[in-house]
Amino acid sequence: MKKVVEVFLLFLLLVFTPHAKGTGNSPPGKPTLNRCRSPEKETFTCWWEPGSDGGLPTTFALYYRKETSETVYECPDYHTAGKNSCFFNKNDTSIWVNYNITVVATNALGSTFSDPVDIDVVYIVKPNPPERVTVIVLEDKSWPFLRVSWEPPHKADTRSGWITLVYQIRVKLEQEKDWETHHAGQQKMFNVFSLRSGGTYLVQVRCKPDHGFWSEWSSTSYVKVPDYFHREKSVWILIMVFSAFIFLILTWLLHMNSHSLKHCILPPVPGPKIKGFDNQLLKNGKSEELFSALVVSDFPPTTSYNYEDLLVEYLEVNVPEEQELMLEENKDLHDGCLKSECSTSDSDSGRGSCDSHTLLMDKCGEAKEEERQTDQERMGTEAEDMVSPDMSSGRVKTWPSVFSPLPQYSSNTLDEQSSLEMAKQHYLSDSQFLPSSTSSYLTQPGHGTKEALGPSYWEFCLSNKQPHLLHPQTQARQQLQAHSDVDISSIGRKQAPAGLQSPLLRPTEYVEVQRVNEEDMVHLQPVVSGCGQNNCSPQMPQGEDYSKVKGVDSDNVLLLQRNMMEEDRCPCEHQETNGVKENCYTSSTVTTTQKPTAMPVQDEMVLGMNGYVDTATMCILPTY
Amino acid sequence: MAQRKTNGSKLFMMVLYMVAACSAIPISDLLDRASQRSDTLHSLSTTLTQDLDSHFPPMGRVITPRPSMCHTSSLHTPIDKEQALQVSEADLLSLVRSLLQAWRDPLVILSTSANTLPHPAQNSISTKVQELLEHTKSLGDGLDILSGKFGPAAQSISSLPYRGGNDISQDRISRLTNFHFLMSCFRRDSHKIDSFLKVLRCRAAKLQPEMC
Q1: Chain segment A330-387, per-residue pLDDT in tens
Q2: Residue B186 lies in a domain
Q3: Which residues have CB under 8 Å from A256's CB, separation 6+?
Q4: For chain B, how many structural domains are there in total?
Q5: ipTM of the complex in this document
Q6: Signal peptide span per the entry (chain B)?
Q7: B6 domain-assigned
Q8: What sign does the CA torsion over B53, B54, B57, B59 have?
């Protein structure tokens, strides 16, 4: 019983003793060998991590065993490598041999063994960092670069080839946070390019054995790259100067060629250009010079003319005997540039001279000066337009616009005829062209009229005064007559040129008032005499021609007289102002003057008997 | 890849043969070439071992046969640096050649075994073993030619027969264990070969200190 109590008490004592202490001692916790390293493959060190110490002072011991023997050795050196470490020196280190290492922690209460670790020295090599890292700044063609050089760790025996190290360097700018890593292989020197001028660089180097672990990074080396900005700047300055120079040159060139450039970029709008027409003169208002210039260049002369003079009371149309003469005349006229001069003198004895008062009305001309002016101007541009022969100075006051067209004739293949026509056309077409003026009425035969002017018509402005419509010169006169003849005949010859031919040949032809335009211009068209309604081949101007102006009656009706027989007068006669009868153009009297009177024109068309064309004052002159 | 390796080895042999014939190529370059190959060899074996370890059951460690039981352990190789540096070049070369020779057959067995190895990374392991085989063969052939330059001592090769048997045990654990054991033996021996060749290279390249 007592024994039981004693045992019980002892037991209690044993149980409570630890609790009485409060801290609770225990055998040490299990230490762990966390790493072993060899810096040069000749020695190595192992470090362990102690476990809990159990509240009591604990001692550690490391025991190892080589694979070749069963002998257990204790760590020879606990202090060289620091606390909780074991250093194996060269004598104790064998390579290509497995070590079985165990750490034992011991305290008063007991000891604890760590887990054993097998290591082979050759597999745990981690060298020291490279030593004596130097960085210098060198220049490569004025561009700086870093040269980094170092030494292997002094312990590592690379000379004999026992350990082979490869290196790595890393560089960064002071203010940056990312490193730039370069692999340097086995060499002990490295160049770093692409530096920023004026920056401070940090350089570090580390190494690794061929089959081992990387060393720690060496201590940082600082290097400052000198400024080479000024060198860059000088280059920039050069570039700026050069470009400024080039810019100046370009500006100067541009300035020099500004005109041509302007022409290139904004070409001037071409305006209508009349040969010999001087815009400046026109602007200045000097019409005489202007028109004289035109006359010079084959234009109907438009010197100041007296419209009144231009007007003729009646148109005297003569049929020249010989065609050749006419032709010649025509040619002359054709060739020459006839100035428009209206001379009052009428040397023409009455062959349809411009000055003939019977042709044109004076009033017409006077009144229509303005209109003529405009007409004249128009004339140039409107080739096909009606030309009213309106010559101020000329006796014949024809509207400027009357004269233009006889395109058909111009297109006539027959030269003579064409020339004839030309002549006529000239005569007709020139407003400026003073029919009364001697010479050059006929300007440019083909001027503007070469083309097939549909209707050839010519308007006459009949005026009282009938200045000689035809130019004073005989030639001209004749030609004029011829012209008039031709014109007359050709007027209204809308037909094919073929048709024109024959009528052209015929000296005497009809003149038919084609129409009266609003300017009181009488458009005459030749009538093919003898052509019936249907089948008038214009080619046969039968013997009807009238180019004889009989007179102008009071109503400003130009009366034309037919010269010859009238047998074949065209039965179909009626006025068509735009008579588009196929082949037949009949003459019609034309009362000109105004539009209002245009109607009457038609009415009076039948004035003429026998197919005459009573070219009364067709046109125009209404308002005078 | 295999053809490339054989071509490479052939080329290497040709080069060495030419060297033997004409001695136009310096030894240091040849040794440099050889050490590069051995370096590759060892790296491969290290990778292979790590692949094996990734899935190797830790408990297998306990029953891992000790490395001293490698079939090449009878070969006396230097165990530290002083000893290694005292060995002559011819002897070093002879050691290297012996080791290479000793591993030709076991590697074949390993290669065969790797095809059916019960391991998750069996494919890559098999490929790597194949490479090992080729590298070893080419290196051995090259060094056979090179040894002519080093004198008669380099010609002697110790015979280290492998007696492990063709058929590594039947059960899975045993097979894996054996495979792992062989690989660890080979890893060490390849490191030896590499180290010796690099020492030789450094010795031969007296005029080129940067090689060391």
Answers
A1: 555 444 444 444 444 444 454 544 554 554 454 444 444 444 444 444 444 444 444 4
A2: yes
A3: none
A4: 1
A5: 0.84
A6: 1-24
A7: no
A8: positive
